[in-house]
Amino acid sequence: MSLRHALLAALSQGEASGYELxxxxxxxxxxxxxxxxxxxxxxxxxxxxxxxxxxxxxEQTRRPNKRVFTMTDAGLAELRAFGERPSKPPAMRDExxxxxxxxxxxxxxxxxxxxxxxxxxxxxxxxxxxxxLRDRLLEGRSEEDYLRDSDxxxxxxxxxxxxxxxxxxxxxxxxxxxxxTHRQEPAAG
Amino acid sequence: MSLRHALLAALSQGEASGYELxxxxxxxxxxxxxxxxxxxxxxxxxxxxxxxxxxxxxEQTRRPNKRVFTMTDAGLAELRAFGERPSKPPAMRDExxxxxxxxxxxxxxxxxxxxxxxxxxxxxxxxxxxxxLRDRLLEGRSEEDYLRDSDxxxxxxxxxxxxxxxxxxxxxxxxxxxxxTHRQEPAAG
DNA sequence: ACCCCATATTCAACAAATTGATTAGGTGCG
DNA sequence: CGCACCTAATCAATTTGTTGAATATGGGGT
Lengths: 189, 189
Known about the structure:
2 copies of one chain form a homodimer. By secondary structure, chain A is mostly helical.
């Protein structure tokens, strides 16, 4: 039940509504914690019931009203306790890798090629968005300076992991594409 | 319900019992599809009911008997159909990254340092095991030769992704450790 | 003898995730 | 005026995943 902690961690970066959290998760958290909006809303309810977050309604004129959530002291305490427990190993579910594993049996190299290109394109998009976020965080400073002097490094370090992961995907899909392409060619000379 | 496909993909590499699959998942599949033994047994049941795999009992004298599963033609057809559908984006759950993200608020750099070292050690172990598997697959051939000439590339390519991922973790945790260590030092000169 | 470990599988209870739909006001476009 | 899209949230049903335990056999060590 650890989406709760991912939510608390996100709220530790500042208050947000469920909708805003959904977007935050989509753009910046998805590479280490995946969740749908429905999940977020449901768990925010429960966090509120447990007193780990507080909600207040913000009335808006040109948009629907929203409920903005803030982490409570109890929430911070829970996050701290979580931080001191050993972590579960990362859990992954990646359909494309399953397809690659079975690709020698399923034939159809064209389908995998197409999927690999789609995967690469998606990773490039994510990387580009991550790079924007990075530039915004750095504000012109170098990475070394930022990591040494800024008052906050957590979000930068996780962003860095996300960037590295997307770069890995770009490199790896390139190998997959090259491999399949070469093997499709009739072995000439 | 895609553990079914991960199971079919694993069985496409050859028949296996539930117990053997659990180990296969643990050592070679875990970096792209996580599942517990209980899940495997349960889904193997269902795959059998749906006619996608077949089981036969292998009597053993020095060990408990086991049920060995084989993919059926219907199973292969299902795997092919799966291969042609678009893939869902990868889903991740990584507690340690959540802790790093919140680390500026939770204080206690010692706890994160320790967790980072544990993570690095685990990745090194996994990488070492992956390297063994790789050497066994290559049988002395170079990677380039293998990818061009061998009759099977799927398992090698997924193994490659796993190796790259563990290497990423080693590199990234090194940065985390260096960052936290530097920031803990009293800023001298 | 005793205990622990590895093989091999199963059951049940509970918690969490996924899927799909629904409601509702506002904005921008043609 | 109608349509599509964005903000904002909620509901319900079903499928998956997690946790903990139980069972049975045999091998190795002290």
